[in-house]
Amino acid sequence: MKNNYFFTGFPGFITSSLLKELVKEEHQINHIYLLVLPQTLKQAEESLHNIPIESSKLTILTGDITKKDLNIASELMPILQESITHVFHLAAIYDIAVPKSLAEKINVHGTKMVNDWVQTLNNLKRYVYFSTAYVSGRREGNILETDLDEGQTFKNHYEQTKFVAEIEVQKIVSKVPTTIIRPGIVKGHSKTGATIKFDGPYFMLNMFEALKASPYIPYFGSGRVEGNFVPVDYVISATIYLAHVDKAIGQTYHLTDPSPYPMREVYRMLMKEYLNQSPKATVPLSVAKSFLIIPPLRKRLKIEREGLDYFTCKSHYDTTNAVRDLEGSGIQCPDFKETVAKMVEYYRIHKDDETKHIQIK
After folding, report:
1. String of b and e for 299-309 (b: at least 16 CB within 10 Å)?
2. Exposed/middle/buried for 89, CB within 10 Å: 0-12, 13-18, 19+?
3. pLDDT exceeds cutoff 90 at 320
4. Where in the numbering of this chain does the Thioester reductase (TE) domain appear (predicted)?
5. Which residues, including other chains, have CB under 8 Å from residue 109's CB and lie 6 or more apart?
6. Separation CA 257–CA 323 (nearest Å)
7. How wide is the angle at C-alpha 42 spanned by C-alphas 39 and 46, nearest 5°?
8. Contact indicator for 186, 233 with CB cutoff of 8 Å
9. What's the pLDDT band for 53 if we cut at 50, 70, 90?
């Protein structure tokens, strides 16, 4: 039996990358359905020019994950309920500075609506839910893939709402064949450097660009915490593989770096590659955060103040389940050091493209 796929989150970076790889690997594709908001329809249609698939095998549906039945046209529902075999739910607000109300609407309520909808599908083989490793919040120490509610607090509304959303997904695991993916901070492709958004580790490059005329750029904080940055191609390849093997049903996976570098070393490697210089001295994080209270300074440096919280939380994300179940697939997380040159090269070429920068408020 051929597979019929349903995606939320298109034309977002990870969803688009998943779609391209899925088409490339030809997983017995019969049809692919992409759920998009009406206001992103034109952008979605333009994005499809980069997807090598016959138009007859792909349908864009307008809808809204925060509505009942995802606001999909009622006449299409019987077709989808009988045909869909794989659902990939990626639609979410990923901004670490997101307001609480918006995060709750999209990340929590939206996931509840998707959960309700997938339970109406009669031939579902897999529901793949994209969570985040950072549902661990401010917990420190070794974080297991089986851990979730440990009474933790959170650094921002993004983490807190993704935590609540994952709890909602866990409630239906016994009813629906589910695989939960928890990526680390996703960066560009390991071999090309390509990305559509300069956030996460790119905030460091933004700052280096803004301060490149300065002879002294310091470290911020001790930098002893792990910098858990994973290239998008690793996350995509691992997700597609796990979505099609029975051993991944009911499992949760940290798609994080099994051997991450300390944040101080990540910072040093990026500065060396971008500016050919090394950091001088150290500025306490409390001082750096106090400066970033000033909106014009945040905007000039293109850094979200909330991003500095990831320099302080001493967490290690255990990858036992992921490494075990990916064994034999040939899929491994590349060493961050080996990806730095392409990451910086891509940033250097596209740094003036404002569509790749998030809006700093």
Report:
1. eebbbbbbbbb
2. buried
3. yes
4. 8-238
5. 66
6. 10
7. 145
8. no
9. confident
Residue ranges of domains in the chain, CATH in brackets? 3-186+229-255 (3.40.50.720), 192-227+260-315+335-356 (no CATH)
The first and second tokens of residue 127, run together, are 């529901």
pLDDT at residue 261 tops 90: yes
- Whether a cis peptide bond, with omega within 30° of 0, leads into 11 is yes
**Pick from 93, 39, 79: which is nearest to 63 by CA?**
39
DSSP 109: I
Tell me how far apart the alpha carbons of residues 143 and 133 are, in angstroms, rounded to a whole number. 9
Report the alpha-carbon distance of residue 336 to residue 325 in Å, rounded.
22
Q: How far is CA 157 from each of CA 96, 135, 226, rounded to the nearest angstrom?
A: 7, 11, 22
* Residue whose token pair is 């998008």: 232
30: three-class secondary structure by DSSP: strand
d(CA 223, CA 39): 41
C-alpha pair distances (Å), 11 with each of 47, 111, 301, 316: 7, 18, 28, 31
Distance from C-alpha of 79 to C-alpha of 104, rounded to nearest angstrom? 30
* pLDDT value, residue 1: 74
Return the H-helix or E-strand segment holding 89: strand 86-89
Residue 212 predicted with pLDDT over 90: yes
> Nearest-CA neighbor of 13 among 225, 252, 195?
195
Which strand (E) or helix (H) includes residue 183?
Answer: strand 178-183
CA distance 41 to 64: 12
How many other C-beta atoms can be found within 10 angstroms of the C-beta atom of residue 346? Answer: 20
Residues β-bridged to residue 35: 8, 61
Of 173, 160, 157, 141, give the one whose Cα is nearest residue 149: 160
Residue 75 token pair: 């006449």
pLDDT band at 21 (very low <50, low <70, confident <90, very high): very high
